[in-house]
Amino acid sequence: MKIFVYENREILGKEAAKFIASAIRKNPKLVLGLITGETPLECYKELVRMYQRGEVDFSQVKTFALDEYLELPLSHPYSCKSQLLETLLRYLNIPHKNMHFLDASSPNPASACQAYEEEIKRVGGIDLQLLGIGLNGHLGLNEPGSPFDSRTRIVELTETTKTYLARYFGERVPKKGMTMGLGTIMEAREILLMAHGQAKADIVAKALKGPVTTKVPASILQRHPACTVMLDKAAASRLP
Ligand code: GLP
Q1: Ligand 1 pocket test: which of 9, 12, 39, 43 has the largest number of ligand atoms within 8 Å of its C-beta?
Q2: Which of 5, 56, 128, 173 could staple 236 via S-S, CB 3.0–4.6 A?
Q3: Which residues are identified as catalytic?
Q4: Is residue 193 in a domain?
Q5: 179 lines ligand 1 (CB under 6 A)
Q6: How many structural domains is the chain composed of?
Q7: CATH number, domain at 27?
């Protein structure tokens, strides 16, 4: 793992955007796994600025959303799809057919998960997967206890995650989600994990330097051959 620590989340976001832009310049047909939440917001703003300045072209890039909430219309402002469109995708020149989302409104969400796996395979796999980390160490919605070989599937959210998500959903927090599995995530050729803020310091230290265990899903990243980690000073403050 290559770990980089930056002064604050703004600088982290800019460096992450540069990292992604450089991957796109090397491979204009990059297949990019996208995340939602607070973590990528600075990075996404910078990617939009870079695109507007003509520094990076997304016209051949394909994207796959990491996860989605169930029992929520996809048009809900805090569905992962809406968040990705509003914070990033609508500002870039990615053709709509190249954007992939987990279809939570499908009458058969389990087969939608399987179809997502097949679509990822069909495009040749994910080249670069972005990741954030949950307070309990989750990746996507792979909560503690998720098998390391899990695939895209429907999952129950833990109390920690539901409490965290109340900031977006109030009393109507989704109880379930769809997420790429840990096995799916680990097949990405390259991974960029980002975390900022003091609240993540403990879990970041456990995930990066503690034992590799399903109790801390993000600890599996220690086994990935090409994982870059970008932290701000606060999130890095408990690293040994
Ligand atoms: C959410 C998402 C994850 C995200 C994580 C961290 O539940 N499903 O994909 O990485 O929790 O969220 P945040 O970036 O808001 O801290």
Answers
A1: 39
A2: 5
A3: 67, 136, 138, 143
A4: yes
A5: no
A6: 1
A7: 3.40.50.1360
Segments forming the whole domain that contains residue 209: 2-232
**Counting atoms of ligand 1 from 1, which one is nearest the CA of 66?**
9
Cβ–Cβ under 8 Å, residues 49 and 76: no
Residue positions counted in the chain:
240
Q: Does residue 137 have its Cβ closer than 6 Å to ligand 1?
A: no
**Whose Cα sits closest to atom 9 in ligand 1?**
140
In ligand 1, the atom with minimum distance to the C-alpha of 161 is 7
Ranges of H-type helices in 69-158:
80-87, 109-122
Evaluate whether residue 190 is within a structural domain. yes
Ligand 1 touching residue 39 (CB < 6 A): yes
Torsion of CA 221, 211, 176, 193, to 10 degrees: -30
| Gap between the Cα atoms of 109 and 102, Å rounded | 9
238 found inside a domain: no
Are 222 and 190 spatial neighbours (Cβ–Cβ below 8 Å)? no
Is this model's pTM higher than 0.85 or not? Answer: yes
